[in-house]
Every structure is written in C-alpha cells, then in structure tokens.
Amino acid sequence: MSHQGCCSSQPAGDLAEVLMLDGAFDRSNATEVESALGDAIDADKPQLVIDLRGVSFLDSTMLRVLIQGLGDTAARGGQLALIRPNATVWRVFVLTGLSHSFHSFGRLDEALASFGLQT
Q1: Which H or E element spans position 20?
Q2: pLDDT > 90: what percent of the chain?
Q3: pLDDT at position 14, please?
Q4: Region 78-103: what's the mean pLDDT?
Q5: 8 φψ region: left (φ > 0), alpha (ψ -120 to 50), beta (else)
Q6: In this structure, what are the phi and psi dihedrals at residue 26, rounded to the nearest 5 degrees?
Q7: What is the rounded CA–CA span in Å between residue 26 and residue 70?
Q8: Residue 26 is part of a domain; what is its CATH number?
Q9: Which pLDDT tens digit goes with each residue over 27-67?
C-alpha cells in the first residue's frame, strides 16, 4: 500500500525552486501540494521543477493542481518542468495527453539545464 504523500521544497540557485513529491496524492492531500506550489511560485523564483520520481499514485485532483501550477507559473513569466515519475504513474500523463503539455525530464540536472541553469 502506498504511503500518504508529502511534499517538500528546496532552492536550486537564485532563480529556481524544486518541489519534491513523495507517496500517493489524491483529493485528501491536494491542498497541501497546491499551497506548496503557490508558495514556490510566489517566492520570486521564475523557474519551478516538480520532482515526481517518488510519486506512487496521483488522481485527477492532483493533475488539476499541476495544470493550475503550470498556468500560474507561465502567467508570472516563469517556466515549470517535471521530473517524470515511474512508468505506471507517467502513463496517466500519456493517456490524458498531458505528457505533451509539460516539459518533462528524467533528472534534476536536465530540468535545470532546460532553463539555462546548472546544478
């Protein structure tokens, strides 16, 4: 059984923030992630990376939170990238067509490099 999801964040230089998700994410904990995303966007760091490698499950509520974060980041002139989760979870992105909406990478350094930043 998957453990309840948690999220944490850390700066990646002066211009980027990394939000790390671990566990299962659904309606019960989506507001925690939504709040963390809002805080990261408001931190005046235009580049945001969401690390999904530790995600074991996510539902449509979490997809909505990620889509909203993508829009909010773009509205502030920033960029959002994902570090892809395991193949089973990533399949949700592929089946919904969201794999084409997000810039996604296998590693943090690749995501930061896409912004022109180094680790």
Answers
A1: strand 16-25
A2: 83
A3: 85
A4: 96
A5: beta
A6: -150, -165
A7: 18
A8: 3.30.750.24
A9: 999 999 999 999 988 888 889 999 999 999 999 999 999 99
Q: 79: alpha, beta or left, given left = phi > 0 and alpha = psi -120 to 50?
A: beta
Q: List, in sequence order, the alpha helices (H) in the chain.
A: 30-42, 60-75, 87-96, 108-114
- In contact, 16 and 48? CB cutoff 8 Å: yes
| Own/partner long-range contacts of 114-118 (Cβ < 8 Å, ≥24 apart) | 114/79, 114/81, 115/15, 115/16, 115/47, 115/79, 115/81, 117/12, 117/13, 117/15, 117/16, 117/47, 118/13
- Domain range enclosing 107: 6-114
Tokens 């709040």, residue located:
35
5-15: average pLDDT: 90
- In-domain check, residue 95: yes
Banded model confidence at residue 113, pLDDT cuts 50, 70, 90? very high
Give the count of domains, the chain: 1
Contact 69, 33 (CB under 8 A): no
